[in-house]
Design a protein that fits this description.
Length: 341
């Protein structure tokens, strides 16, 4: 098949690598830059993770890439999605294409899920899917097998994508009809990654086990409240991704949480040499989840109110509301609160 990929970042390059393994033709789009040259991947087909074959081509032409693919995969920073879709809307026929979102996050300014952003920009529900799950680029491109999940509003579409994307015994993909729960769970795991980093930086690594249990309980209640399936919190999008996010040293969210404690600083200039702060999705996701939580609680009766102590704790920490030297103890208290929900 022909696969379009919007984005040329780390995860986009991994997707291209996987797609070429399945003998698909790929066209990748990179936003044209006026202040810097094209990425190394764009220029040489190579970055520190992959070397792509001639089955992969590149363009700066958004019209060309949207019209190229049978499937349009989007893999950029989640907070940039609406800006991208404003440009995609100028492409004739964009609204009849099939889309697959391959990133995790909630829009901080509105609390919208990423699939909601696509719908607000004219894409029909039945043409939208999300692809998430455990795995880091470094592991996947090294040939280490994983399981992932694709969720869509229409089960037939998620099943179709599984057949197109799956590579048995290397990337086994499960299909789910709970796109609401999948999106929230996949986004939230980045917030819990920061919490895990704060615990690690504070010398409380033993609390990661309780963190996992509390996180699943917290998110199950939230997902159920906003119309998803609470069991999704126990699936690949959240619980299944905890090893990669809460323990793997390649986790940017884990690294960020640990660094801010060890450096006792939220100064981006100090942290940036070690991790790209802009790509630490859990920072903005904590704000976005609380925005959606607040919207729900405003209309819910007293008996249906939902609390998210760990998400609230991370949001407070990354915004300077907690002394970083005491942030580990603070997260520990919030884990106990979540376990008692």
């Amino acid at each position: 098949m022909k696969i379009s990929i919007l984005g040329t970042g780390r995860w986009a390059s991994c997707i291209a690598y996987c797609m070429e393994q399945n003998d698909h033709d790929i066209l990748m789009w990179e936003r044209p830059h006026t202040d810097r040259a094209e990425s190394n991947l764009y220029r040489t087909h190579t970055n520190q993770y992959v070397h792509l074959s001639n089955k992969v081509s590149f363009t700066h032409d958004l019209n060309k890439v949207v019209n190229f693919g049978d499937i349009v995969i989007i893999s950029i920073l989640s907070q940039k999605l609406d800006d991208l879709m404003q440009s995609v809307k100028r492409v004739k026929g964009y609204e009849i294409k099939k889309y697959c979102i391959c990133m995790k996050g909630i829009e901080a300014t509105t609390g919208r899920r990423l699939s909601e952003i696509l719908m607000d920009n004219g894409i029909k529900k039945h043409n939208i899917a999300v692809w998430v799950g455990p795995g880091h680029v470094q592991s996947i491109t090294a040939g280490k097998p994983t399981n992932m999940v694709i969720s869509a509003y229409e089960r037939a579409y998620s099943r179709e994508l599984v057949k197109i994307f799956e590579k048995k015994n290397f990337m086994d993909i499960y299909n789910s009809k709970d796109i609401i729960g999948t999106e929230y769970a996949a986004a939230a795991k980045n917030v819990y990654g920061i919490a895990a980093g704060v615990l690690e930086g504070s010398g409380f690594e033993q609390k990661k086990g309780p963190l996992m249990v509390a996180a699943v309980k917290e998110m199950a209640k939230f997902i159920d409240a906003v119309g998803g399936d609470r069991e999704t919190a126990e699936g690949l999008a959240l619980l299944g991704d905890f090893q990669a996010t809460l323990f793997d040293k390649n986790s940017k969210n884990l690294t960020y949480g640990k660094l801010i404690v060890e450096m006792a600083s939220l100064d981006k200039s100090k942290i940036q040499p070690y991790v790209d702060v802009e790509s630490v999705e859990g920072i903005m996701t904590s704000k976005a989840l609380l925005k959606r939580l607040s919207a729900y609680n405003k209309i819910a009766n007293d008996d249906s109110q939902v609390k998210m102590p760990i998400i609230e704790a991370v949001n407070k920490i990354v915004n300077g509301g907690v002394n970083l030297e005491q942030s580990g103890e603070y997260v520990c208290r919030k884990i106990t609160e979540a376990l008692e929900l």
